[in-house]
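User: For documentation purposes, I need each entry recorded in a consistent format: the amino acid sequence on its own, followed directly by the corresponding structure tokens. There are two entries in this batch. Please keep commentary to a minimum and don't merge the entries.

Assistant: Recorded as requested. Entry 1:
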Amino acid sequence: MWWETLNLAQKIFFCIATPASVLLIVQIVMMLIGFGSADTDVDTDVSADLDGTDVDGGEVLDADHGFGLFTLRGLIAFFTVGGWVGYTLADGTIWVAVLVALIAGTVALVLMGLLLKWLVSLQSNGNLKMSDAIGQTAEVYLTIPPKNQGKGKINLLLNERYVEYSAVQNGDVPIATGKKVKVLSTVADSFLVEEV
């Protein structure tokens, strides 16, 4: 009964808006329960000994999300908003309804892209990169023994976190607790340091 009262343009807009709205609702529910986010981080952990030179890496490679307009979420927002605006205005002049629906859908598409870009900017992986400590000053926590006689511990501020790491040195004299050292490089899971 109600369907028969609609003109052809309203029927077309309704058929576009309804499935898009269902998909949008499903997407929102999936995002709320954790299934809607795509995690593109790749965790790499490489450790090798090449001719006596230790190489260590443990970085997170992040995909650059940038500003993507034509994503699935953006297109669903376009068809949902554009479809309902077109359906509402289609009982008047058809070309006005189509034009306003396209404009409203495009605004929804752009707003969805901006929203997703903003949400991605809030993301933090929380991983520490040891290479960021090279050149920094640290404090000896546990005495660092002479070269090839073991490891000590240092405390330093790394990526806005106060952390403790193992440390070795190339000198012949132990570096006592409380002394300041400079981080020279990474050696496996430790830092090579020298007294300041």
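Entry 2:
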Amino acid sequence: MTMNAPENICKVIRRIESSGHSAYLVGGCVRDAALGVKPHDYDVTTDALPSETLEIFKDFRVVETGLKHGTLTVISDGEPVEVTTYRVDGEYKDNRRPSSVAFTDKIEDDLSRRDFTVNAMAYSLERGLYDPFGGIRHLRERIVSCVGEPEKRFNEDGLRILRALRFASVLDFEIAADTAEAVKSQSGLLDGISSERIYSELRRLICGDGAGRVFAEYGEVIERCFRGIIPFQTFAAAADNICFLPKNSDCRIAYLISLCQGDASEVCRALKASKKESLHIAALESEMNFVRTYGLPQNKADIKRMMGRLSREDIILIAEYAEALGYGNNAPSFKKEYESIIESSPSPCVKVSELNIRGSDIRLITGAEGAEIGTILSSLLELVITEKCENTYEALSSSAKKLNIKNGSKK
């Protein structure tokens, strides 16, 4: 294989090699290039010690990113390039990171500490591919396999168990038999991994082309990732449908919660999702439950009410969800009516905040106070949505006077 790295990356490698040291592109960029996918970043590894790398790039801007682990960031043509010295890891005491690292002058030593064979390849601009663990063969065979003993790799960092599933899902690969056995037998290591790290991997796994197969084969492992709140049977039940849903992690997590009738707030807390993500997942899950029971709304007013609850992007997600799973079989008519609403008015009034009247106006017009003002505004919005009142100040003022709500009741 031949890699065509950007010139700023090649400049860094040539500078290292011109100083008498070796340098390789390494890891994910080599894997992606071998798959015919454009790498999104490039990592460089070298036998030069950190102090030597600093000397080599003394006329460059260099950021000491992780000096004790041998990593420096060289700014080349305005872009950051990570350069790391070949290293071997010391003992792993916390199932996450080595207690120490030692530098080495052998590239094979460095590659031998990596997680999977497809990530343990290096590429030299001069000598081409270096693949001591059969990564290219495993790419051709579409296999995820640990470098060396799977049990050792997973004990070093329990998150690698989930990374194996993520690669199997995203690449749509099978997991090698010995690696698969260790994934299942050592899944308890995931209990000690932070929810933040797990959530980051899950979001990518759940959107992979192979997610359904991974769900079917490793449901009990993924259950641990969701901290047992979503039972493993759910993943088997979702296996046939998950890949037909939009490739949106919030949408797919909401689907799993809806499928097992779980508590969205509880799941999001367990995953340490952000407040924004939690609210989004809960809103999608609620809408999915409604659509599963009643189908997509069909009349203009109901669709506008839906538009008040969801963003336009989320309305498309829910429509695709309903269409994929056949809930109501009315997605085409929904889409037609929804598009008609947007075409007739690109910014229809569907929320109280979009009314052309404010709470202070209602207070002056009706004398209402506090919660009464909110009640009147909600009533006005309903009149606008059902096209019984135009969204103009004059029309809304007139309707507010007619409503004449005082103390929560009409007079």
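Summary note for entry 2:
Residues 143 and 174 are 5 Å apart (CA to CA).
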